[in-house]
What we know:
Blueprint: H1 8-37, H2 55-64, H3 68-81, H4 86-98, H5 104-113, H6 122-127, H7 132-136, H8 151-154, H9 169-172, H10 180-193, H11 195-206
Amino acid sequence: MTQPQPTHSTRRLNQWIAALSVLIMIFSGWGCAMDDMAEGQYAENAAAPDDDSSPIREAEAALMAHDIEEARRIYGGHLNHYPDHGAAAAGLAITDLLLVLGTTEATELLTENLGATRGLDVNALIFAEDGYLYWASRGARWADDGQFQGIRTILADDLPWSTEQLANFRNFVEGLDEPIDKLVRKLVSLANALKGVDLNLETAIEDDNFSRLFIPGQVFH
């Protein structure tokens, strides 16, 4: 008996599922590394002053103010001076992870395969005041709901997709029509671009003075 051939839409959906599987495996590895960091013991560290004016406190304040990019800049600058400082390394790793969709590799995937007209300003679009998380935490829905605008409409001018592309899942993944091996290669390139995340997490784990992973709830509103 002849087996039915998958439709073009079905093949795209299968490719999308496979791509998500790769991402899940990548993020699962990072999650295990984060769990290991929680075992660190606290001790005073001369390279990491804990007064309110220290770079680490400034970076943490930036996180609480929803400015992930500024926090990343501060963590990175401090790590340049103290390359073995676990708190700075962990902070840089986490901020890199939060801003991953703004990387060159992610932008290539979004524009070439998911119909985006440009890259994402991740900090402004997701984390900052009036970004996606701001409205989602206040109960706003993605689509319009009667007289109430949805997040899709509120952020329409900042999103690199048209309203039609965001109308449903099928429209959004329309560009996922290239062979799965090419798509996976792009995802691997994205993972390789984030090797610094793994290295910085290792630095944090190896620092006996590293005591905590700081991700304030304010980041997510």
